[in-house]
Specification:
mainly alpha; 6 helices; 0% strand; Multiprotein-bridging factor 1; MBF1_N; transcription regulation; transcription
Amino acid sequence: MSGWDDKPQIIGFKQQRPTVAKGSALNSAQRSGLVVSSESKGAGQNHGPADHQRIAKLDRDDAPKPPEKVGVDVGKAVATARMAIKNKDGKSMTQKELATAVNAQPSAITDLEAGRAIPDQQLLAKLERKLNIKLRGAKATIGAPLHPPKKK
């Protein structure tokens, strides 16, 4: 039953909580009979791991590592093989001409020769066939002829 004298309820209005008293203020309030809460707000609530646990979690080496780059020796082998190929005018093959021949971007050849490229097995295979040198495998074989003459 609601009447005119009842206190209206306001939506979104928060009722005031009892104040938190500590020490002598708590003792005097309890003696006088006032309603006082002695609970500390948020003290027993654990919102995640402790600080040292969070730091230890950050220190763990679980983050993915960036992919390895192509070795500088592969870039040097590509550059020397490209320069060895001459056109009909006697000029060396350019990076753009090599990129067009293997259906790749010129920037991919530039990055490969500089040692900044991520290994792309398809591109390396195309370059091996075009330049007729090994670009994959053991470091000692990089730059060696792809099909060396057979020993008799």
